[in-house]
Specification:
Elements lengths: L2 E5 L2 E6 L5 E8 L2 E5 L7 H10 L3 E5 L18 E3 L4 H4 L17 H14 L8 E2 L5 E2 L2 E5 L8 E5 L4 E5 L5 E2 L4 E2 L16 H13 L4 E4 L5 E2 L3 H8 L4
């Protein structure tokens, strides 16, 4: 198991499918907070990583999709999410009602996703509490980025312009199950969207923050001084 340092006090654990599923750990006193929960197959890795970093205090879900809540039922700590995501987090369905896989352009990808989502999912999550825009989490501010999911949230640290954003932006081509070319980004495909127009607005909002580091839900973080242009271009896709 290899933890990657993303920024001061922030660590990334990558795992499961092509190592493309991300879990972030944020130092908080003598332990860590986990942001996003990856897939069920990552539960042992996540537990070991948290112990290596001092012990897990709680989990914050970026959103409740199957590939982002997978470890949450297994780690024996309180789990929090945005109020608009609570119903989906506590539902045992691996495919959310608003998803429309028929929009995916490649036939074999449409066929395999229901299997993958069930494999990735850890099942319904008991939500202990909620967080909303403006709340503070271990030195980060909670921001609400609705669109891909109704209660999708990110964490923003102004001091060094670090954004942990779950699926506000994709660094993968989910319609073809492959990484995007290095340095490229995309708004999530509309097949997954609760509201695709709002997803584009949320990505533009992220771009306007002018982050220097963007830790997304999949693949390696984006880094650079000119990420605003990359993110604004990403919002125009689909």
């Amino acid at each position: 198991m290899a933890l990657e340092k993303v920024a001061e006090g922030v660590w990334l654990l990558r795992g499961d499918f092509r190592g493309a599923m991300n879990i972030y750990f944020i130092e908080d006193g003598d332990g860590v907070i986990q942001f996003d929960a990856g897939t069920k197959a990552m539960r042992k890795q996540a537990r070991a990583a948290a112990e290596e970093l001092g012990g897990l205090k709680r989990i914050i879900l970026g959103h409740a999709h199957a590939d982002h809540r997978g470890t949450a039922p297994y780690l024996d700590v309180p789990v929090l999410c945005h109020p608009d995501e609570k119903a989906d987090a506590e539902n045992d369905a691996a495919i959310d009602s608003y998803m429309d896989l028929s929009q995916l352009p490649v036939a074999w990808v449409r066929w395999i996703y229901p299997f993958l989502l069930r494999r990735w999912d850890g099942g319904a999550v008991r939500i202990a509490d909620t967080v909303i825009e403006g709340d503070e989490v271990a030195g980060f501010q909670v921001l609400h980025f609705p669109g891909h999911a109704p209660g999708l949230i990110g964490l923003w640290r102004e001091s060094d312009r670090v954004a942990l954003v779950s699926d506000v932006v994709y660094l993968v081509d989910s319609a073809r199950l492959k990484p995007l070319p290095e340095g490229e980004a995309s708004v999530p495909h509309p097949a997954w969207a609760w509201n695709h127009a709002k997803a584009k607005e949320s990505l533009r909002r992220l771009a306007a923050l002018e982050p220097r580091v963007v830790g997304a839900g999949h693949e390696h973080p984006l880094r650079g001084e000119n990420l605003r242009e990359t993110l604004e271009r990403a919002a125009e896709k689909y």
